[in-house]
Write a structure and sequence with these properties.
The protein has 309 residues and is an alpha/beta fold. The chain has 2 domains: 130 residues, Aldehyde Oxidoreductase, domain 3 (Alpha-Beta Complex), CATH 3.90.1170; 145 residues, Aldolase class I (TIM Barrel, Alpha-Beta Barrel), CATH 3.20.20. It has 12 helices and 12 strands. Strand 10, helix 11 and strand 11 form a beta-alpha-beta unit.
Amino acid sequence: MVSERRSERTALDLAGTGLTESWVTGLVERTLAEDLTGGAPLPADPAAAADLDVTSAATVPAGQVGTADLVARAPGVVAGLPLAARVIARLAPGAALTARAADGDRVARGDVLLTVTGPVRAVLAAERSALNIASRASGIATATRAWTDAVAGTGAVVLDTRKTTPGLRPLEKYAVRCGGGANKRMGLYDVAMVKDNHVAAAGSVAAAVALVRDRASHVAIQVEVDEVGQAREAVDAGADFLLCDNMTPGQLRAVVAEVGDEVQIEATGGLTLGVARAVAETGVDYLSVGALTHSAPILDLALDLRTGG
């Protein structure tokens, strides 16, 4: 059964998602255009846009009304329902959309997540685009929940990275939040990450940190380290956070003992679900996992038409 947690918002409400109306509108237009026009702008008229689905236009009588359910074909954590609803509403603006689950809910195979009643031709034209968005987001949310479950009770937070699908970063990072994880930086503009190449270019960790402070005093600075000595050097140089790359649990414990009271510490590199708890129990504040977005399989969802009119 669908989790008992329920959202008070409707399926079309973006409140609380962190996604802007303009970004979602653009995603909906691009996704539908990819399917209906090969990328050319959609007709403004919803019915004209829906009629570009040659199969549905040929087989579904104009004006036929029906009801369809968006259904989970596998257990997982759902995300992206408001966006799937927006896709359907773009082609069927008069359709009645009812949320049966909320983003972040755990769902079982067979659970109905969203019900739509409206013009069948338009609903079928929107089907794949809506499913692609919700399946992708739900797959990421499902993968993230597995990681957050693995570290539950340790105090460590699971983070995503910038390893996202081009053009889908806001959606994929939202899906991570639906799965119980947290977002790290959104891009190269909101957190400074000093890595080996930056240190090589600047001449030293201290020089790199000083140069970033001088240019962008408003952003936090994180320094990538791979042993305790580098961690100490980075903290003394003024780093706000440390990124411990490919360290063993023993090495992480040593870093925590050395500087854990002075900065926040993030573990990354080579992390798997099998070692997640052991890493979290070293005392690090965060585990950052690129696989949440670059390797998560979709959650299988389907749209089942149950009545015609």
